[in-house]
Specification:
Radius of gyration: 17 Å
Number of helices: 8
Strand content: 15-25%
Low-confidence stretches: none
Mean pLDDT: 91
């Protein structure tokens, strides 16, 4: 069951659309874990997705709930939709490796404001509306993976992070310094990357893979709660990310993988 709401974000100064995926038999007396999805239009339904293909998370939420004996709500937060709107909203660090001249006009305060609104407006709204547990998780892919990691380590809110195809090469030095200063070793971090990824012709095809590998080894210095999954054939798209969702969800709840494609 999907519910739709719109919430005004006071610091971001925009109305955000949110899709909420509820278990079929919702019971207000039951505690629900929550997983927040950035780029929310790409989370649940192909018909809503920017490129007509979502990660189809609802069926994996249901499967995970059935084998963990947990109840899980998925919250999909739509992005700002325009190219620069998304760049500003999902990049908490200064871009030093810009694909276009326009990206150099990025404003990181917009991302910081959005993150504040997510934590202080969206999450309280969800937790007032539904009977939720303290098990909160955050998912992001590509640019939004940067934001997911930033949210996970900056705020004492989330217990696990899914960062798929992290575009850390855009702002590598500042990003690494942030992790070094803010990492929380008790928070689970799931990283995924495909070996065939490239999202822009100006970037080397090995860039996503190499930087994800570097990020994994960098974080391993500070935390054992990190997993990297690599797909030899993986490209930069929702269809590839969908294939790793169960590995991500299982990592949040178990030490070992419970399902393998």
């Amino acid at each position: 069951m999907i519910e739709y709401v719109k919430i005004f974000l006071p610091k971001t100064k925009r109305e955000v659309k949110i899709e909420i995926s509820l278990p079929r038999y919702y019971d207000n007396s039951t505690l629900f874990d929550t997983i927040y999805f950035l780029d929310g239009q790409n989370a649940f339904k192909d018909s809503h997705a920017a490129f007509h293909r979502a990660i189809r998370a609802t069926k994996y939420l249901g499967y995970t709930a059935s084998i963990t004996n947990r109840k899980i709500i998925g919250i999909a937060i739509y992005n700002a939709e325009s190219d620069m709107g998304r760049i500003n909203e999902y990049t908490p660090f200064h871009i030093t490796n810009a694909a276009t001249e326009e990206w150099k006009n990025q404003d990181i305060t917009i991302c910081h404001n959005f993150c504040d609104d997510l934590v202080k407006v969206i999450i309280p709204y969800i937790e007032k509306k539904f009977n939720t547990s303290q098990n909160r998780f955050i998912y992001g892919s590509s640019l939004a993976a940067l934001t997911a990691i930033y949210l996970g380590y900056k705020y004492d809110v989330f217990q696990g992070i899914g960062a798929f195809s992290t575009a850390s090469f855009l702002c590598k030095e500042e990003f690494n310094q942030f992790i070094k200063n803010n990492i929380k070793p008790n928070i689970k971090l799931f990283l995924y990357v495909g070996r065939q990824e490239v999202s822009d012709g100006s970037y080397d095809q090995k860039l996503y893979y190499n930087t994800s590998l570097e990020l994994y080894h960098f974080i391993k210095k500070y935390s054992n709660q990190v997993r990297l999954v690599v797909s030899e054939s993986g490209v930069h798209c929702e269809a590839a990310w969908e294939k790793q969702l169960l590995d991500f969800f299982s990592f949040l709840y178990f030490d070992n993988i419970i399902y393998r494609y």
